[in-house]
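Take a look at this chain, tokens included, and explain the fold to me:
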Amino acid sequence: MVATTRVESLVNSGIESVPKEYIRPKEELMSIGDIFQEEKNEEGPQLPTIDLQAIDSEDETVRRKCMEELRNAAMEWGVMHLINHGIPEDLIERLKKSGEGFFRLPVEEKEKYANDQAAGKIQGYGSKLANNASGQLEWEDYFFHLVFPEDKRDLSLWPKTPSDYTEVTSDYAKRLRALAGLEPERLEKEVGGMEELLLQMKINYYPKCPQPELALGVEAHTDVSALTFILHNMVPGLQLFYEGKWVTAKCVPNSIIMHIGDTLEILSNGAYKSILHRGLVNKEKVRISWAVFCEPPKEKIVLKPLPETVTAESPAKFPPRTFAQHIHHKLFRKAQEDEDGKLATKEDAN
């Protein structure tokens, strides 16, 4: 197993500048600003907020209006804040407290749960390996594990400290699975009626960064999932690439952020957007987010546009692929882009 430097360890060592492997390319640096200033900006487009209370209304008109708002947000943005989502606030607070408690443990204690990406063991405590052609790293450590369905979990990999970690995480996962369904006629149908969604949780831990204008917590990407649900500790950081510009997501109390992922974009033949997003860091506050990726089985379902989304005017935009093939295709394409970027950088240097 290859020893990996944890970002938290770098920060604890007292570094005052960002190591070169974390510094973003020159063209990217131009778009990285102060996240606290960005969040205060009231001008320009703002992430939509959808009140889900109306989805259970006895009035069909009210229900239909809520579904329309969800659909419009999915088509225009591919991401939204959900409020009145039905998951108890006290459960969410306990989940956050428990995750924060794990990351407060000494690094040596957390290392007992270390994953081994080279050996294919992706669950556990980790940091990004320099597996892209540019060798760049992201300013984050994380804990990744499958949280639902219960019979597919490996609880031996879950933190034993804090003692309530398994209880609160399991409860949250069950409730989130119900939210991802939003009843048979609702989002479940839009995801293709898939029975066997896997829920994978990634707790992202972004330590304070001495030069936040040079690094990213997570580089720009789209999610491969059907849906992704995100909680955070009310420290801003998420940015969405909307209409050619980076837009900062506001911190909305008691909300859950919902992303449309590639899977749903494919099933909808591009009607729903899997939006490009990234995470910024700062020098004042640690940021923690809890992302849950709702994913189809890797081989069982062939992802392709649903028949009703394909017409003569709007032919299929995506070839049929299993989820595993989609991930492989995406990683291969990313590796090619990284390699091309590296070559271009070399040519510029010459």
